[in-house]
Amino acid sequence: MRKRPDVDWSKRPSHAHYFRTRAKEIDGHIHVLEGYSFPNNGSNTDDHTHRIEGLTTIDKDHQHVFNLRTGPPIPIPTGGHYHIFYGETREKDEHRHYFYCRTGNGLGYFPEGF
User: Which among 80, 74, 100 is positioned nearest to 88, based on CA atoms?
Assistant: First the structure.
């Protein structure tokens, strides 16, 4: 198979990561954070990060906003990488929820040699 001349193979193509985590219970309820990171170009060994933002699930008639950046890529021995992110939701009704998450492997890469 011939390599595509329009792709710079020295840089990894844009990709995103799926994430899902439960925030710490506060005031007798929890929220789930789930979605996809914003796409970014990067490899398993550079220092790229991804923007993560969204709304939590609704519980006790409210939800929270979250907005942050992941840490740098952490290589996976079998190929690919993941990112770690953690933080707290924005305040709602005088409380916040804390969370920690490991993303899934990158999504959207061309197969090697494509």
Answer: 100
Q: Which residues contact 36 (CB under 8 A, 6 or more apart)?
A: 16, 17, 18, 19, 107
Q: Which helix (H) or strand (E) holds 33?
A: strand 32-36
**Band of the pLDDT at 97, cuts 50, 70, 90?**
very high
Q: Which of 21, 8, 41, 13 is nearest to 102 (CA)?
A: 21
Give the tens place of pLDDT for each residue, 9-61: 556 678 999 999 999 999 999 999 999 999 999 988 899 999 999 999 999 99
Three-state DSSP state, 67: strand
**pTM listed for this prediction:** 0.84
| CB-based contact 24:99 (threshold 8 Å) | yes
Strand partners, 69: 51
